[in-house]
Amino acid sequence: MNAASSLRRIGLPRLIVHLSVLVICIIWLIPTLGILVTSFRDAGQISASGWWTAFTGAAETSAARLGEPSTAKQEGTNYVISGSVFEQGQGGAVRAFGTRVAAPTEFQAGQAADLGEGETLTINEDGSYVYTKNAPFDGERGKRVYLSVAAPPSFTLDNYRTVLTSQGIGQSFVNSLTVAIPATIIPILISAFAAYALSWMEFPGRALIIAMVVGLIVVPLQMSLIPLLRMYNEIGNLFGVPSRSYAGIWLAHSAFGMPLAIYLLRNYIAGLPREIIESARVDGASDFEIFVKIILPLSFPALASFSIFQFLWTWNDLLVAMVFLGTGKDQLVLTGALNALLGSMGGKWEILTASAFITIVVPIIVFFALQRYLVRGLLAGSVKGG
Amino acid sequence: MISQVVSAVGVVIAGVFVCALYYWLSDKILQAVFPVPVDNVHAASVNLNRRAMIRPWLFLGPALVLLVVYLVYPVVATFILSFHDRSGGNFVGLSNYRWAIQDAQFRQSIFNNILWLAVVPAACTFFGLVIAVLTDRIWWGNLAKSLIFMPMAISFVGASVIWKFIYEYRGGTDTQIGLLNAVVQFFGGDPQVWISIPFWNNFFLMAILIWIQTGFAMVILSAALRGIPEETVEAAVIDGASGWQIFWKIMVPQIWGTIAVVWTTITILVLKVFDIVLTMTNGQWNTMVLANLMFDWMFRGGGDSGRSAVIALVIMAAVTPIMIWNIRQANKEMGGH
Prior knowledge:
The complex is a heterodimer of chains A (386) and B (337).
Chain A: H1 3-10, H2 12-39, H3 43-48, E1 59-65, E2 73-75, E3 78-84, E4 93-98, E5 107-108, E6 112-116, E7 119-123, E8 128-133, E9 144-150, H4 158-165, H5 169-200, H6 206-217, H7 222-239, H8 246-270, H9 274-282, H10 287-298, H11 300-316, H12 319-324, H13 334-344, H14 349-369, H15 371-380
Antiparallel strand pairs in A: 1-9, 2-3, 3-8, 4-5, 4-9, 6-7, 7-8
Chain B: H1 2-33, H2 41-81, H3 95-102, H4 104-135, H5 141-149, H6 156-166, H7 179-186, H8 200-226, H9 230-238, H10 243-254, H11 256-271, H12 275-280, H13 290-299, H14 305-335
């Protein structure tokens, strides 16, 4: 099948749809790809060339000296010096060359460059050169030339080794896990019980509590920070304990995630078939037993959705960690460490990109592995503002 | 390091155990306090009723305590603190509010927040809708959606590093390693320090949030588009409507409610935007926004809880209409339950 007939089969409008989605996908992927590629590059190459040239090799400028005039051979009326600009064992591909340091790319490799005074110089890609003059060469030393050499692409794991050990990213990774895992699991159980009470128990004030939960979903975190910071400091002073601790941030994250958790779980649990719960009641099961043996197993999809949300949110959070956790080595989470590196390691992209990639790799794995539940949760709870 | 992991795992297990123990034990105590004797029908029914009255509050208890301590009480406290001085001890009336109105940085933040509100929700919803429509029509649409949705999982700080690298500027004759400057140079333009160009730098920061949130809009809108009954579209096709007309006159009106949800959700997110501005510029070059100014005043010069509280209240005031609308919506839905 040739291109024209396959084009006709697909149809031009369809082809445009395919192409535009492809272009959008590429635009969306390129930023992440940039830091992924850069994090594996050699520090020198990162600053010498853009990451998009990583696979073709970076161009580096170097200098070389041509053979001494005494090595010139006479060929007809011309005098010729020839050889290689590379020393023994050195390699690479010459892209361009020049005779002034300011213009190392004046002439393309393989091109015969007219240097004036009857001199011509050709440097080939493999480094061999022919330098001719229509009169004998003068002077004692060889001519200096500047080369733009394509260094072969070189990839390395050194950046990761550096950030994991000497930049404290490894420790921060553990700190982030220490924050995120309890802060994901603790609120689930508490809100599941609350959601069950709000769905299947009759009591005065139920509608009011549901309305409060829905309202609290969108209350900005900023409203809570100042009073809680004061409260934590007071508790710290009162009992002589540090005001910034893991226990403090676990409770804070649990509480901040709770309105959405209760809302999502209530919507799900309230939708479970009434017959199951009522027949269990008739059989004499208590509410506690119904909850543990029937509700929890049946609510697995909703529990999974919420835990993914909460995990991503606690892992990616910076604000709550900055307020409720210390900045010491044993408490600095990944987002905080990355933020600090942005300040102290400004242009050191080999450090920044590797650290950034370590920061985002866990959520990305969670995302691709459990995307189904994430989408379901989003569709059920899209009143929450992130 | 290892001991920290062990203690974190320990906390998870202990936490779950304590929670479970609370619910189990409180239920047992309830049954012991209000026994249901088999020989006394009257006492049994009285005690059963009492149990039914108390049990919901046992189930709700821990959640309510957390909600009240961490969300309800702070809202009230912040409101009260906004009328007090920097230490929170002395009543100063409206002076923090007067300060805010006259403060140049506060005004700048309000202006920037309005700019963000005008651009980001609209851009995310628009791109999300377009991409949802396009990807629904091709066989590899789900793969494309996954890729566009992926930035959702990336932290704002991580995204900021990613985009700072794109906006990177090299002075002098150095090779431009930032993608944006390389592209500009390729087309013959001059490289710029993008994030320090006043006013326009806001848009370079917004691009990051749009990159993250478009996937969210796309997922929600795509589900809504699939929910549109096929008959309405088919009828329009039979009536000879063009693709453009079908999209704007048949599909968009039917998903109007979902568009509103997406729009308001992103609006709330935009009002709280903090990490991106902190890591990209820290409010320099006229990029300050309310959440950053609030955080700044929380710690600036030892912290000023009064001024900080006023800024927090402005953010709260902006989300209040959405909050009321959500509560009404939820009440309406529950009317049927």
